[in-house]
Amino acid sequence: MIAWLDIESNSFPAIHTALKEPNGLLAAGGDLSPARLKEAYRQGIFPWYNQGEPILWWSPDPRCVVFPGQLHVSRSLRKRMRKRDYEVSFDTDFEAVVDACAEPRSNGDGTWITRAMKGAYCELFRQGIAHSVELRIDGKLVGGLYGLAMGKMFFGESMFSRETDASKIAFTLMVEQLQIWGYALIDCQVSNNHLKSLGAKEIPRAEFKRYLNKYLDLTPGHDWVFNPEELSFGEAPIR
């Protein structure tokens, strides 16, 4: 059985007690307050549930991550990026990015980004913890992603594409910017083919926890501002 969280406390069970099936299910209940969410991410835990369900908390093993220096940019994506017919920004329309990520997918699947989830992460954005990446073509928002930045770690939550390769371009440029800023790891939570194509890999949960212990309390030392003059836009020979 999994633990039911006390609404009066932000504590979580030890992550090694998470279920093996379904992989990583750790606890249920509680709330989505900023304090609880920040404590969850500090321990390698994240919320993921469907509308009408209690809040479910997860810490899967293994964990899907991207090491900034090991980002994979395919030849075709590199070629697409060189066109520079798009504009990328950070934190210019967080709510619109979350709304886009919450839209039903082309495969007919629904969304796990409930109204409560949106409200919680918008509050973290107001606190300067959650951030968004926007990609626009002709002024229209066509791709992007959002997540949390804590210390020298970035915790990706969701991404979307309304044009071919839009989310891949947004993610690639964000990773390159984070590498310049000295980030150690990008948490992608659970692996999929889209992430694998960008160089994501799985590491043991215990190893992921060691990264949290080492990098979460470091001072970022930068403003969350996209600086295109620092980036290669597909010109640099990223792996």
Description:
This protein is α+β, with helices and mostly antiparallel strands and 239 residues long. The protein is built from seven helices and eleven strands. The strands form two sheets. A seven-stranded mixed beta sheet has the order 6-7-8-9-10-5-11, with helices on both faces. Strands 1-2-4-3 form a four-stranded mixed beta sheet, covered by helices on one side. The longest helix has 15 residues, at 166-180. The termini are far apart.
Work out the radius of gyration: 17 Å
Largest β-sheet summary: 7 strands, mixed
Helix content: 25-40%
Query: How would you spell out the order of helices and strands?
Result: EEHEEEHEHHEEEHEHEH
User: What separation lies between the terminal Cα atoms?
Assistant: 43 Å
Strand elements, count: 11
Structure classification: alpha+beta
Strand content: 15-25%
Mean pLDDT score: 93
Strand order of the largest sheet: 6-7-8-9-10-5-11
Question: What are the defining features of this structure?
Answer:
single chain; four-stranded mixed beta sheet
Describe the secondary structure blueprint for this structure.
Layout: E1 3-5, E2 25-29, H1 34-42, E3 46-47, E4 56-58, E5 63-66, H2 75-81, E6 87-90, H3 94-101, H4 115-126, E7 130-137, E8 140-150, E9 153-161, H5 166-180, E10 185-189, H6 193-196, E11 201-203, H7 205-215
Parallel strand pairs: 1-2, 9-10
Antiparallel strand pairs: 2-4, 3-4, 5-10, 5-11, 6-7, 7-8, 8-9
